[in-house]
Amino acid sequence: AQKCGVCFQPPSIILIYRDNVQDKTRQRIMPIRNFSRFSDCSRAAEQLKNNPRHKPYLEGVSLRQLEKLYSLLRDHLEGQSLSESLGRYHHEHTIDPEEDMNKLDDKELAKRKSIMDELFEKNRKRRDDPDFVYNVEVDFPQDEHLEACAWDTESDEEM
């Protein structure tokens, strides 16, 4: 797979992929049936990815990308513009560092963790990467005032 996108009219997922057998770039249009604005995007994405007709072509496409395309289609069915839908999706799938995750329910916490895992894998440096450095040493400035934390000030006798 090289590119994957959504077409609103008629509702379909479009995949541009490289056919290595014939050494050609091809386009596959996968129609979306029985999908409404009340449908579950993650379930629809799983069904498409596991469909025997499309499975070999969708191996290179992540489930999260398919979910995003389905959510864009659902928002279009609800009457939202593409920019509104992309903005909402971006807001829902970014991590706010100031957010207290202790107050989230299990489903939302699992969603945030999967976003963090995906971000970690995206930024992870592997030995095969061209800019990989084995032993990185960083000197931290010592002349700045260090803030003390409450757990630093407790003595061993208090514990």
Automatic annotation (TrEMBL):
As for subcellular location, the record says: Cytoplasm, Cytoskeleton, Cilium basal body; Cytoplasm, Cytoskeleton, Microtubule organizing center, Centrosome, Centriole; Cytoplasm, Cytoskeleton, Spindle pole
InterPro entries to which the protein is assigned, alphabetical: CEP19
Q: Provide the GO biological process annotations.
A: microtubule anchoring at centrosome; vesicle targeting, trans-Golgi to periciliary membrane compartment
Where does the UniProt entry say this protein principally localizes?
A: cytoplasm
This protein's record includes keyword Cytoplasm: yes
State the coiled-coil residue ranges. none
Q: Could you tell me the keywords of this UniProt record?
A: Cell projection, Cilium, Cilium biogenesis/degradation, Cytoplasm, Cytoskeleton
Q: Does the keyword Cytoplasm apply?
A: yes
A single cellular component GO annotation? centrosome
Q: Which family does it belong to?
A: Belongs to the CEP19 family.
Q: What is this protein identified as?
A: Centrosomal protein of 19 kDa
Native organism = Quiscalus mexicanus
Q: Gene encoding this polypeptide?
A: Cep19
